[in-house]
Specification:
This protein has three domains: 69 residues, no CATH class; 60 residues, no CATH class; 173 residues, Rossmann fold (3-Layer(aba) Sandwich), CATH 3.40.50.410. It contains ten helices and ten strands.
């Protein structure tokens, strides 16, 4: 019975995984799961998985072929027909299931065909980890495998005729005991920092910020699956940049002008003071509607060229379309940095564009 339950549970997880992959673009573009995020799990609404079955009615209540009737008379009553009172039919059910962030990142990587990231830097921390690799007949009592021990004892008693189904008592002896075996492996701990920058000037509305929120959620999920240690820093800017926490990053609303260079200067300062590029894998993501004070573009290019890009694994610029933004900045970057391997630019017209934007940003595997 236990084995059958485990088999059914595995099959259910496979079906669930398939449904999530099939609807992944919808989940990404509508943000259905982000608001239901726990510490390590995401609650995802999926269509209820129902098993077809026969439904039997009461006898002698009439049916097809019984009694009189005129040609064209409909059989039965259409569900949901007006004037029928309270209904007795079930609606389509939505099942909420919990999926780990790690599993979610795997699904994202498979569906978007994202390459594995090759961390840069020589100073990866090496730590020893014990990994259970099998079963052996000797070992400490703390590692005894109780299920396999009792299964072996049960087989022995059945084979020797000692097992009584009416009194199902299983008593393991010394020869029945099985223990987990392990070996020590060395795992490198690659560390990474993600610096998110967002334009919060008057031309960036709530809809544009919601797009940024959804995209950064998925970027976080993927990068955290690639590194054992990830730090996240948040920068908002209008004409002046400042570092904020995650909550303020998503909810700050300003109304001033825009100087993108202020964000790049602060980003470079944070890297210099906290993250040695030889030891850290550095990812910079900037989101804006492309509206920038004209004379500031030259400053942005200079800071990127001389300071930020040489230190970064990847610099991504996402331009969120806004009715109030000029959209010029991405063209400036494209003219100068389109050949740089660690620079990626993406235009995000609406929420449906998040899916393709994530693939553009992370598809290089840097």
């Amino acid at each position: 019975m236990v084995r059958k339950i485990e088999k059914d549970n595995t099959r259910f997880k496979q079906i669930l995984r398939g449904k999530i992959k099939k609807e992944l673009r919808k989940y990404i573009s509508h943000g259905e799961m982000i608001g239901k995020r726990g510490k390590d799990l995401i609650s995802i609404p999926v269509p209820y998985v129902d098993i077809p079955h026969f439904r039997y009615g009461e006898r002698q209540t009439g049916g097809v072929g019984q009694g009189g009737g005129d040609a064209g008379t409909p059989i039965g009553t259409a569900p949901g027909q007006a004037g029928q009172g309270a209904g007795d039919r079930p609606a389509d059910h939505i099942l909420e299931v919990d999926v780990s962030l790690e599993e979610l990142a795997k699904i994202l990587g498979e569906e978007l065909e994202l390459p594995r990231i090759e961390p840069k830097g020589k100073k990866n921390i090496i730590h020893d980890r014990d990994r259970y690799t099998g079963i052996r007949p000797v070992g400490p009592e703390s590692l005894r495998h109780f299920k396999r021990t009792y299964r072996k004892a049960l087989k022995r008693q059945i084979a020797s005729g000692q097992y009584d189904p009416d009194q199902p008592v299983v008593v393991p002896i010394r020869e029945d005991r099985l223990y987990r075996s392990w070996k020590t492996v060395q795992n490198p701990e690659s560390t990474a920092v993600i610096l998110y920058m967002m334009d919060v000037s008057g031309s960036m509305m709530d809809e544009q910020k919601e797009i940024v929120r959804m995209e950064t959620f998925w970027i976080d999920a993927w990068l955290r699956s690639q590194y054992s240690g990830v730090e996240t820093r948040y920068i908002v800017h209008d004409a002046v940049a400042r570092e904020v926490d995650q909550d303020a990053f998503y909810h700050t609303r300003e109304s001033g002008g825009t100087m993108i260079s202020s964000a790049y200067k602060l980003c470079d300062k944070i890297i210099d003071e906290n993250y040695n590029p030889a030891e850290w894998n550095i990812y910079c993501f900037h989101f804006s509607d492309g509206d920038n004070w004209g004379e500031d573009n030259d400053w942005c290019v200079e800071i990127l060229e001389k300071q930020v890009l040489p230190k970064s694994n990847l610099f991504c610029y996402g331009q969120v379309e806004s009715p109030y933004g000029s959209g010029q900045f991405i063209r400036t970057l494209h003219d100068l940095f389109s050949e740089r391997k660690n620079v990626v630019m993406s235009e995000i017209k609406d929420k449906d564009g998040i899916y393709d934007s994530i693939k553009e940003f992370l598809g290089k595997g840097r």
